[in-house]
Amino acid sequence: MQIVATYPYINGTGQVKTCFHYIARNMSLVESLEHLPEIIGKQLFEKCCKNGCISEDNKQSELVLKLFVNAYGQEFCRSFGAVSSQLLAEYSECSEYSECLVIFCLPVTHLDLKACHLGNKSDIVTELVDMEFLQVLNIARNEISEEGFRLLLARNRMFKCGFRVLETLDISENDVSLRILKCFLKMPNLKILRASVADSKFLKGWNESIQVHNFDNVPLNPEIVGVIRTEGFGAEIVKVWENNVANWETARENKIDKRSCSFYGSRKRKSEYILSKPSLPKFDTYTYKRTTSQCMECEGVSAEG
């Protein structure tokens, strides 16, 4: 039997707490939280956090997060700034929360995933296109190459969906090809782009594309995105996830220490076990600003690039 969460008049604080406790323990039965006042939604979410029903990276957590995202949107999460790269890292040996974070971030307008070691196959890379309110995006320094950017842009190129309101984008210190650069430049409302070129032989074609799409090279500003923090009443659960990951990482490192100190144990240094970071090429980074207010229609990239 499914239930729809409503807001009946309940007389007495004790009855209210009992009601919250019951619903929080049976969120799998809840069909919708829509039309439930925000103040009640916040209290219910706090109870869910305390009960641990969204503290793990599993299907139950994803279903509960969808209920709150669908009902409260940007009141639940307006912006997200990653503090722990372990929540998303492609190479992490710890449990990570990328699938939960994809759902959590769907309503955001500002998203900062800088230096999160996303790589080319992170769940959130392919789902960015579904964040329809996204205005500011920072995915700098994430070891993303042609393969990852193709996945990120696939639906945008084929179906012209996503990134319709994106204004500021930082993809610097990733391996961005000229073909990928052109696709980003064609986003209809993009005003500011920060990107890096790893090979100077592409610079001529790179600069030509920038001019064709009405962008100018402006003085380098490493903080064009600014500081983005996690905001919205859902931010509480992110702290729980970060704490869980920190505890797992500490336990893992302690286990490594014990093994390395044993008589027959490995003599490898602890640093060799920590999240490996691929060696990065030397990048030349540029900041570009659109010189015209005229919006351009988003087009797919041709086979010729």
Which structural class matches the secondary elements?
alpha/beta
- The assigned CATH architecture of the largest domain is Alpha-Beta Horseshoe
According to DSSP, the number of beta strands is: 7
> How helical, in percent, are the residues?
25-40%
Q: Strand-and-helix sequence, N→C? A: HHHEHEHEHEHEHEHE
Main sheet record? 7 strands, mixed
CATH fold field value of the largest domain: Leucine-rich repeat, LRR (right-handed beta-alpha superhelix)
Question: What portion of the residues fall into strands of 2 or more residues?
Answer: 5-15%
Mean pLDDT, as a whole number? 82
Provide structural commentary.
The chain has 305 residues and is an alpha/beta fold. The protein has 2 domains: 1-53, no CATH class; 73-234 and 280-305, Leucine-rich repeat, LRR (right-handed beta-alpha superhelix) (Alpha-Beta Horseshoe), CATH 3.80.10. Helices cover 37% and strands 10% of the residues. It contains 9 helices and 7 strands; from the N terminus they run αααβαβαβαβαβαβαβ. The protein has helices at 13-25, 38-51, 59-72, 98-104, 123-127, 146-159, 178-185, 203-212, 235-261, and strands at residues 79-81, 110-112, 136-138, 168-170, 192-197, 215-218, 284-290. The protein has a 7-stranded mixed sheet with strand order 1-2-3-4-5-7-6, with helices on one face. The protein is globular. 34% of the residues are buried.
